[in-house]
Write a structure and sequence with these properties.
By secondary structure, the protein is mainly alpha-helical. It has nine helices and four strands, in the order H-H-E-H-H-E-E-H-H-H-H-H-E. The strands form two sheets. Strands 1-4 form a two-stranded antiparallel sheet. The protein has a two-stranded antiparallel ribbon with strand order 2-3. The chain binds iron/sulfur cluster (SF4). Iron/sulfur cluster binds next to loops.
């Protein structure tokens, strides 16, 4: 089990991409909330069902915010070996040719049943954990058995997203947004703002 509140460190990435450090802090905050929820679940006799080779959740539409996507793109460009990048690109081209609807395609960062950008995967991926029994192929556990979903604290998610607000606050016009985020992360205005900038990863230019 990873240590509580571990934070992925990548000084080069953080220097190259303003906002990366904020996003990595946000990831650490969410990871800590997942660890706490999992500790409570274990105490209740439940176990983590997710494991290597299980990628069912990566085949659903994945919600991401602009900064999350930029960090993943940077990770792909600066950190992945050229051979891996080439395989991801070839795989994506094949998937686009086979399935015109982007929402029916797997996440473009999924390679050989694993996440190619695991250290900087989105908050939604970090929070999606299934208990006791692994997902069946194609199963959407949030619908089929919500009682088996781990529920990390939403307050931590809001706080994590709020860490990234300064980055948006400095760029909202450049990003084509109509307004900056509300400073209070749990306000209805901030939630509506976040919903307005969150889109399925599969719909975006990803690399
Ligand atoms: S970013 Fe990684 S963990 Fe998230 S859906 Fe894509 S492959 Fe899966």
């Amino acid at each position: 089990m990873r240590p509580l509140n571990s934070r992925h460190r990548d000084p080069a990435l953080e220097r190259a991409l303003p906002g990366a450090a904020l996003m990595l802090e946000a990831c650490a905050l969410v990871d800590a909330s997942v660890d706490a929820a999992m500790a409570a679940a274990r105490g209740a006799g439940r176990r983590w069902a997710c494991g290597p080779g299980c990628d069912t959740c990566c085949r659903q539409p994945i919600p991401v915010t602009p900064l999350e996507l930029l960090v993943m793109r940077a990770q792909m460009r600066f950190r992945l070996a050229p051979g891996i990048r080439a395989r991801l690109e070839a795989q994506h081209a094949e998937q686009c040719a086979a399935e015109p609807d982007p929402l029916r395609r797997p996440c473009p960062y999924l390679l050989d049943g694993a996440c190619a950008v695991y250290a900087v995967r989105p908050l939604a991926c970090r929070r999606y954990l299934v208990l006791d029994q692994p997902c069946a192929p194609g199963e959407i556990c949030t619908e089929s058995r919500p009682e088996d979903m781990l529920i990390p604290a939403r307050k931590a998610l809001h706080a994590a997203l709020a860490l990234t607000f300064p980055w948006y606050g400095a760029r909202w016009r450049d990003l084509g947004l109509t307004e900056p985020p509300d400073a209070s992360p749990e306000s209805a205005a901030a939630q509506a703002w976040l919903a307005s900038v969150t889109v399925p990863l599969q719909r975006l230019v990803w690399n």
